[in-house]
Amino acid sequence: MTERSAIVTGAGRGIGLEIARVLCAQGLAVGVNDLDEAIAEQAAAELRNAGGIALACPGDVTKSSDVTAMVERVEAELGALWLLVSNAGVFHAAPTADFPEEAWDREFAVDAKAAFLCSRAAIRLMIPRRGGRIVIISSIAGQIVRTGQIAYCAAKAAAIHFARCLAVEMAPYDITVNCVCPGMTDSAMLRQSAAARGVELGAYLEMIPAAKLATGGDHAATVAWLASHAAGHVTGQVITVDGGQSLYHPLTRNG
Ligand SMILES: NC(=O)c1ccc[n+]([C@@H]2O[C@H](COP(=O)([O-])OP(=O)(O)OC[C@H]3O[C@@H](n4cnc5c(N)ncnc54)[C@H](O)[C@@H]3O)[C@@H](O)[C@H]2O)c1
User: Fold this and answer.
1) I want to staple 132 with a disulfide (CB 3.0 to 4.6 A). Which of 64, 159, 175, 200 is the partner?
2) Secondary structure percentages of the chain, helix, strand, coil, to 5
3) Ligand 1 pocket check for 180: Cβ under 6 Å
4) What's the domain range around 12?
């Protein structure tokens, strides 16, 4: 087998699916992970129908046995693992005084621990080959304060520092580790959270200097660049893709 492979977690829909589409179009063989088996299968079939090489790898990225099986399967069936994109995420909003402990544990498991489990499995293959790329999808919520999202913000911040620490440890092996921080992006996650708050998506545009939501394609293009030869010396970086949202403050407007 001569293919170079990639794994995108949480790629059954949303940002992950768009990343998988772009990587497939660029010739990587892509393992499409998702907790939801049906959408993982559907996404992989869509990628194959479009001419790509894709394999559905359903599994829970918070379980090390699922992660090990996924990585071994992709390596065996698609070729040497070149790129891991740790994208799966969950979001829960509630005031901190009412925040359920189970939601805190779930968010830390999916939004932080899974980056460790997936990266650990990936680098065990990449270190002996001395080469590879890891991209962690965090959020601007890991960089700025958002109220009512205590676990999401803290877990996404943990993922950012995890990426920085791993980047330094992996640099001698020619493995880069970077973080992409999306701002508000049109996806099922954002639509569900807007519906739960009873707000229209359009209301969010007020908070974004570019006056538009990000798209999965914006993040996919950034990931594709980080995976490319051109970005080979870029490591430990946090790349914010948010149309200026994280820089914006209400006073900005008034000078
Ligand atoms: N949409 C936004 O506005 C936004 C903003 C900043 C960051 N992000 C981050 O981008 C990433 C993708 O978000 P999205 O908007 O596409 O979300 P989404 O909810 O549309 O998709 C996330 C996918 O992850 C999968 N998933 C959840 N838990 C999993 C697990 N344990 N194992 C495997 N798969 C699992 C879900 O089934 C789902 O298909 C997430 O990490 C999210 O936190 C999103």
Assistant:
1) 175
2) 55, 15, 30
3) no
4) 4-182+215-240
**Domain annotation covers residue 130:** yes
With respect to residue 17, please indicate whether it lies within any of the assigned structural domains. yes
Which pTM does this prediction carry?
Answer: 0.97
pLDDT at 51 over 60: yes
- CB of 112 within 6 A of ligand 1: the answer is no
**CATH code, domain carrying 139:** 3.40.50.720
Which spans in the chain are helix H?
Answer: 14-25, 37-49, 64-78, 101-108, 114-129, 150-170, 188-197, 216-226
**Site to substitute for ligand 1 among 42, 189, 215, most atoms within 8 A of C-beta:** 189
CA of 251 to the centre of ligand 1 (A): 32
Residue 254 within a domain = no
* pLDDT, average across residues 143-162: 97
- Summary mean pLDDT of the chain: 96
Check if 13 has its Cβ closer than 6 Å to any atom of ligand 1: yes
Mean pLDDT is lowest, of 51-65, 107-121, 188-202, for 188-202
* pLDDT at position 255: 58
Mutating to test ligand 1, I would choose from 34, 63, 135, 218 the residue with most ligand atoms within 8 A of its C-beta, which is 34
- Name the domain count of the chain: 1
DSSP state of 33: E
For 208-254, the pLDDT digits (tens) are 999 999 999 999 999 999 999 999 999 999 999 999 999 988 777 76
Question: If you search the block for the tokens 């293959």, which residue do you land on?
Answer: 125
Residues annotated as catalytic are 152
